[in-house]
Write a structure and sequence with these properties.
The protein is an alpha+beta fold and about 190 residues long. It is built from five helices and seven strands; from the N terminus they run αβαββαβββαβα. The chain has a domain of about 130 residues: Alpha-D-Glucose-1,6-Bisphosphate, Chain A, domain 4 (2-Layer Sandwich). Strands 1, 2, 3, 4, 5, 6 and 7 form a seven-stranded antiparallel sheet that branches. The longest helix is centred in the N-terminal third of the chain and has 20 residues. The protein is globular.
Length: about 190
C-alpha cells in the first residue's frame, strides 16, 4: 500500500512539474534531448514568394513588436543595434542578413535564444536557417519548446514556406503501421 502511495505521489509531482515548465501547445510535438549538449532545434526553411530583403523586413517588424506571442525581444548584433545585421557588403555570396532574438516561454520560466540567418540574394527560393537553444544549462529535453520558438515566428509571417532540413527537432516517426507480432516489433525502426 505504501509503495502504491509513493508511486501515485511521484506521478502527481511529475504531472505538476510538466504542467509548470513544459511547452504549451500547439507545435510542441518536436522535442529535442541534448543534440547541442543542451536542448536545441535548427530548421532549414525556404520562402518561395519572398526575397531576402522582404523576409528580413517581415521578421524584423514582427520581432520588434514582440513576435506572435509578445515574448520575443530583438537583440543587438555586431553589425546593427536594430535586430538584424546586413552581411551583404561582406559575404554576399554566402549570406544576406543575420539576427537574434530572445524568447520567454509561455509560463515565464525560461528564456531561449533564437538565431536567424537569411541566405544570399542569388539563391532562389530565399533560405532561412533558424536555430533555437535553451539558455539554461542542463536543459536536456525541451518538450518541443525550441521548435515552437521557430515555427510560431515563421507561421506568424503568413507566408508560404517549406522545411528542407532539421537538426535536433526531427519530425515524429510515422508509426501508422501496427505490429502484428513480436517479430514485427523487432523490425520497426525507432
Amino acid at each position: 500500500m505504501m509503495v502504491r502511495s509513493l508511486v501515485v505521489c511521484v506521478c502527481v509531482f511529475w504531472l505538476f512539474c510538466s504542467s509548470c515548465y513544459g511547452c504549451v501547445a500547439p507545435d510542441c510535438d518536436r522535442k529535442d534531448c541534448g543534440t547541442c549538449g543542451n536542448a536545441c532545434c535548427k530548421l532549414e526553411l525556404e520562402f518561395p514568394q519572398l526575397t531576402p530583403v522582404q523576409l528580413v523586413a517581415k521578421l524584423n517588424s514582427t520581432l520588434a513588436q514582440g513576435g506572435p506571442d509578445g515574448r520575443y525581444t530583438l537583440k543587438e548584433t555586431a553589425e546593427s543595434p536594430f535586430g538584424f545585421g546586413d552581411l551583404r557588403p561582406y559575404h554576399s555570396d554566402d549570406v544576406s542578413f543575420i539576427g537574434q532574438a530572445f524568447h520567454v516561454t509561455a509560463k515565464g520560466t525560461y528564456i531561449d535564444t533564437v538565431n536567424l540567418l537569411i541566405g544570399p540574394e542569388k539563391v532562389k527560393p530565399t533560405r532561412l536557417r533558424a536555430f533555437s537553444i535553451s539558455q539554461i544549462g542542463g536543459a536536456y529535453c525541451d518538450e518541443g519548446q525550441n521548435y515552437k520558438n521557430i515555427v510560431a515566428l515563421v507561421k506568424s509571417l503568413e507566408e508560404e514556406w517549406n522545411e528542407t532540413g532539421n537538426t535536433g527537432c526531427e519530425k515524429p516517426k510515422d508509426l501508422t503501421v501496427q505490429p502484428n507480432s513480436i517479430s514485427d516489433i523487432k523490425e520497426l525502426q525507432f
